[in-house]
Each structure stands twice: as C-alpha cells, then as structure tokens.
Specification:
This protein is α/β, with parallel strands linked by helices and 205 residues long. The protein has 2 domains: 62 residues, no CATH class; 127 residues, Nucleoside Triphosphate Pyrophosphohydrolase, CATH 3.90.79.10. Strand 3, helix 1 and strand 4 form a beta-alpha-beta unit. It starts with 6 loop residues before the first strand and ends with a helix.
C-alpha cells in the first residue's frame, strides 16, 4: 500500500492537517481537487470558525507544497535540551512555557542556529545528540499584512555547560530545568507545537 505523509500547520489556536483522510470526526474538512491547489485565503477563512481543519487530498505532499508557495516561508530552529538527570530545559515567554528557538540567519546552518539560540536565550551550552532533527513544526501567521509560514526544525540536545540566564531583552522571564511532574504541568500552558516536539523527544527514550 502506498504511504502518504501528513502535514500539520498551526494557525493561531487552530490546526490544519493535510492528509488523505481526516484524523478524527471533530475535523471540519476541505476536499482538494488534485488538479487544483487549495487557496490560502480559503484556509484562513476556514480556521476563523473551526479549530481543527483537515484538507483531504490524494497527494498531501503536493497539496502542502502548493499551499506553502502562497506564503513567505521562514526558516527557524530550536533545541530540546536535556540535563544529565533527564530534566528538560524550558523557557517562559509571554506567560507561556516554550522551548528555545529562533530564526536561521543568512549563511547559517539550521543545526548551528539551534545551538546558538539555546545559548542566547537560556545561557546553556549544549551539543546535539543526533545530527538529524527529531522533527519539524509549521506555524502560519500574518505579519503586518504579509502571511508567513515558519518551519522550525528541532534538535535533541544535551547540556555540556553554561548557567541558566534567561534572555530578558527577548521577553523571556524564566529559564529552568523541569522534571517529569513539572513538565506535565507545564504542558497545560504551552503551544500545540511544543507538545508535539516534547512528545517526539519522549519517543526517543
């Protein structure tokens, strides 16, 4: 049987999934004719009323690519950093728990950007555990009338040095290590993309 990828784009608090079928019955659906692409405007309009939207396509990869072409694609990278005792590095930004991440600069490799952002935002020096990212997340947003689609690639890392120092000038009010119980509590006040990344890390153990 032919296997198809599934793509998920987060738009505000809504979640748009591109797949061959809807993940669950709670998803509102948009069906795509294989000869045409779904319009960005139609998707944006749909998420104004529905939190979960499934774009049904026989070729999700092509549909995602055609939709992505209607955005300005922005590259970002982040780190999921563990300490020796297994605790996870989290930051508090704009009142919610988050992971250190940021834009990939011109001429910079995404992996190096992830390491740099971890150090800048938290004061922690880390190294990657695996060369390949553990996953990627997609987030669409309107920046002063320009719709951007940000791809963030995430690397599994371990602390090798440094001391916690939240980057206050970026609005980060806290950087700390969270054990299992505290992490579960933090997941109640975070973003769906962050939940996805933490879940991907847990699958590595």
């Amino acid at each position: 049987m032919e296997q198809h990828n599934t793509y998920t784009i987060h738009i505000g608090s809504a979640q748009v999934t591109i797949a061959t079928s809807a993940p669950t019955s709670e998803y509102a659906t948009l069906r795509v004719d294989d000869k045409m692409s779904v319009s960005r405007a139609k998707v944006i309009k749909k998420v104004e009323t529905d939190k979960f939207v499934a774009i049904i396509s026989s070729d999700p990869e092509r549909t995602f690519r055609l939709l992505a072409e209607q955005f300005v694609v922005v590259e970002a990278a982040g780190g999921v950093v563990e300490r020796e005792d297994g605790e996870l590095l989290m930051i508090r930004l704009r009142g919610r728990w988050d992971l250190p991440k940021g834009h990939v600069e011109m001429g910079e490799e995404a992996r190096e950007a992830a390491l740099r952002e971890v150090c800048e935002e938290t004061g922690i020096v880390a190294d990657v555990v695996e060369d390949d990212p553990i996953g990627e997340t997609w987030h669409a947003y309107d920046t002063y009338g320009r719709w951007e689609l940000k791809r963030t690639r995430w690397w599994w890392m371990r602390r090798v040095g440094g001391e916690l120092k939240p980057q206050g000038e970026e609005g980060i009010t806290e950087a700390c290590w969270l054990g299992a119980e505290a992490l579960d509590e933090a997941m109640k006040n975070t973003y769906e993309t962050i939940k996805e990344v933490v879940a991907a890390l847990h699958k590595k153990h």
